[in-house]
Amino acid sequence: MAFNDLLLKALNKEKTERPPVWLMRQAGRYMPEYMEVRKKVSFLELCKTPELACAVTLQPVDILGADAAILFSDILIPIEPIGVNLSFNPAPVISNPVRTMEDVNRLNHFNPESDAPFVYKTIDLLVKKLNVPLIGFSGAPFTLACYMTEGAGSKSFLEIRKMMLNTPDVFHSLMKKLTEDTIKYLQNQVKHGCAAIQMFDTWAGILPPAEYKEMVFPYVKEISESISAPFIYFAKDGSAYFDTIKELNCAGIGIDWKISLKEANVMLGSKFSLQGNLDPAILFSNKASIKKYAETAINEGKLCPGHIFNLGHGIMPATPVENVKYLIDVVKGLA
Amino acid sequence: MAFNDLLLKALNKEKTERPPVWLMRQAGRYMPEYMEVRKKVSFLELCKTPELACAVTLQPVDILGADAAILFSDILIPIEPIGVNLSFNPAPVISNPVRTMEDVNRLNHFNPESDAPFVYKTIDLLVKKLNVPLIGFSGAPFTLACYMTEGAGSKSFLEIRKMMLNTPDVFHSLMKKLTEDTIKYLQNQVKHGCAAIQMFDTWAGILPPAEYKEMVFPYVKEISESISAPFIYFAKDGSAYFDTIKELNCAGIGIDWKISLKEANVMLGSKFSLQGNLDPAILFSNKASIKKYAETAINEGKLCPGHIFNLGHGIMPATPVENVKYLIDVVKGLA
Q: How much is the ipTM here?
């Protein structure tokens, strides 16, 4: 079977017959085949066992027909070897949050190959088996720092806000360290065969826009310019920052469902391939509704330099799998 | 002491020497005087005991010098008498969520005076004592419906999304009922002496903009046009809807900290008094930082038809009270 390079064409702004489609968190708890694997191992064990991580990465490609695979892992995986005590319950918990300069200085040097060998082993296995592009990924430094300072998930992530306001030197030391590590982590993913990279900035949206621009965006830009594969930046709840984000020179921008693709494209200067942006809740409705919403996104995507069909955020755990399959079929013109 | 009508002037777009200042959740857990009262009663008891609700409403005016008082209550208070089993632990929990047409039809008729007599009694007590305007408030129907369908707080409020997508008739019946109740609830607050009304749409921001416009905004507009006092609408995370929200003809719009007042004013057609928008996290920093951020908001507020200084969301529980006092002094030109 010929290699399906739709994703790469769309990221390269080449005309495609239809948009490529993959879905954030497409390998996950909504799939019975995934749950079967998860019965045997914890989430962290799954991430760290290449054969199993490879198997679940392949599931949405083989079973649902996604046009791209995304490495099965978690954004917090690379912070464990630098000295962060990480567990999942199922939300992430960090028993030794990073809040002072001493905490930052205590973080270990990051050696991607020796610190996260399972990640690269998984990629090695996948590239041999896939006939669609493999997307590598990382968390963005700010989002990683949100968890590292808070020690858990949060609505307000007050600890990082306090650090930014009261000890900006500690904040910048941490961001610099995470930026360096992220570049190494991602460069190695590309070296092992990832054809594109997505960086998730899940919590960027908690900031006043001026602070995002001054204190966070420079690190995003540095990483985006250090990666040799097509790069997609996704800042959830980030539309307020589009005037800043449009300064990136990367291939794609992920768009959440809280703004239309049409408007996002205008705000971003019509220079990126846009990836998104179906509300994941739509997958809890019926076929007629899924089709209607998907077609809106497809039609608005045609106004953009490139369009990669995706959700505006990850698939939710209780999503009916037949609706996910139907959505993919709609984008492919099969339903 | 002369009545301080700065808030009303700012809502009326009259020139004022400085912006009036009050802070969302200004009566709350960060104040030792509030905690003293709360030692004796539960949160719900406090809301329902006029003498105590009156006392805590007055605290930020008397102790901190706020230019307006806001009725101490909770947005969920008026849904209890219509048949919703409500408790706080401290987050709201509803043991009988509303999900079907039968559930909606089972809701009681709402008689504000007999169903929430303590609210109006609190207002009666307050208007005799205050020499600043008293702001009444309610939740917006969509935000109330989010809690009523989910039965609790949530990040995604999937139940209301499913209702909107799969049984829109049930959704609209619920919204219609809540809109009627809210109008009655608020009209009576004005009758009892509230000088302005704020409606909180805390969860409106979870929707795709087209759905907000079609399915939620008409109810907001109806309420805003049914209230005879100056009306402030606050949709948290609502900047993506400004193109719709600017169709309101009310006095003020609340602005969160995720957009600048300057940009919000342009997007809203420069026709409203804007209320906001300091990031509540700034109150965890130092005086120099608080002053810098406050002055930015004050200066951007001068570009708006009117400006009411406030936070972009409620004061957080652990906020240092001396920083709140300092912020109010800065806005008043006293620090």
A: 0.94
For residue A90, whether the previous peptide bond is cis, meaning omega lies within 30 degrees of 0, is yes
Q: What is the pTM of this model?
A: 0.96
Q: Does the beta-carbon distance from B281 to A166 stay under 8 Å?
A: no
For range B281-285, the mean pLDDT: 98
The 3-state DSSP class for residue B21 equals: strand
Tell me the Cα Rg of chain A.
19
Amino acid at B271: K
- Do the strands A306-311 and B69-70 form a parallel or antiparallel pair, or are they unpaired? unpaired
Say whether pLDDT at A334 is over 80: yes
* CB-neighbour burial class of residue B93 (10 A; exposed 0-12, middle 13-18, buried 19+): middle
**Domain of B18: which CATH number?**
3.20.20.210
Domains identified in chain A, total number: 1
Query: Which chain B residues have any C-beta within 8 angstroms of a chain A C-beta?
Result: 155-156, 158, 161-162, 165-166, 205-210, 237, 239-240, 257-260, 263, 279-282, 284-286, 289, 296, 316, 318
Say if B1 falls within a structural domain.
no
In which domain, by residue range, is A191 found? 6-331
Q: Tell me, yes or no, whether A152 lies in a domain.
A: yes
Split at pLDDT 50, 70, 90, the class of B1 is: confident
CA angle A65, A68, A74 (to 5 degrees): 115
Which sign does the torsion angle of CA A142, A148, A153, A154 carry?
A: negative
